[in-house]
Give the backbone structure.
Amino acid sequence: MTARRTRIACLLVPSPALAAELAARPQLQGRPVAVSDDSGRRVAEASEAAAARGVRPEQRLSEALACCPALAVLEARPARVRRAAAQLVEAAATVSPLVEEAAPGEVYADLRGLEGLYPDEDALARALLSEAPRELGARLGVADGRFTARVAAFAARPGGWLRVGRAQARAFLAPQPTALLPLEEAAREWLALLGIATLGDLAALPRHAVEAQLGETGGLAWLAARGEDATPLTPLPHRERVLERAQAEPPLIGREALLHSFGQLLGRALARPVARGRLVRAVRLSAVTEDERLWERRRVLTEPTGDRARLWTALEPSIEAAEFGGPVAELALEIGGLTAERGHQGRLLRDGARRRREQLDEMARHLRLRYGKAALRRVVALAPRSRIPERRYALADYEP
């Protein structure tokens, strides 16, 4: 096994909400089952048995039941979906240190550098699949590009894996439907209007023609259809955090009991060695009800603090105003963005250059944590003497 032969793996559960529900209700395996969307009026995901009877995603439930009177309609439980998605991430992380969660149920792992740990590709694939819960029916695709790996995972059977080499990628992708491409609805409609149903149909078009209609996204889709997708993985960043959980027996109903329990979790989190003497930037609260409904709130503090009273003052209103939707059976509190230094924005211009840079970096990290992406930009010189103004400078994310 060489680094070039095993580059990217995609661990996939195509219908995570359905898989999570069937894992909790194994008696429904093999039967026509559908999971409703948030509105409760349309089909979000359907089992193979349901699809064989004409049930499809985005179909009205009334139409689905007319097609299949025996259809079992389930409501998605976000807590179950989140738990299943986290299990997939953990499964991939046990094999590779570079893991990306593209969506719930869709996880990528960079396999380069793992050749010496496993005797062959089959052993590596078995290691990945064995870590994923069997009841989720995860499948694995391995290829040199992430899109090809994803399509390979779709083509694999539940619990199985499929390897697509670089030389075979284009032929493998050609008969696959264009619905697998990560395109917006308008782009899909354009492809359907032209009768472009397969990836081979798209790959046969000139790239410039596709880009003229769909822009840069179309060009990337054209490359993906040819097995030439070079999109890199974006591994999950290492975040220092402290997570505390509690099971409530019997489930909690009263507001005072919930406040007391969350307060205990906060105290336990701050007492952990990794959090002692450090400041907290963000806190995430979550609760799972008796029927597995999920409630969650996240607070990013304007100014980091390690003081329990100040943290509780920031969190208490969220708990007071919460509508949990039923008795709470499980609570969790996570503190993150741990830092040993507090930034003071007011003195940004009065301190020396080194101190200003440190504070700027601190604020950049705080904003990234709060908004999930870089919030500051810096000017980068590309070709300052170029005759074309647009080519002289560019804006790039500010990375502390």
About this structure: The chain has a mean pLDDT of 87.
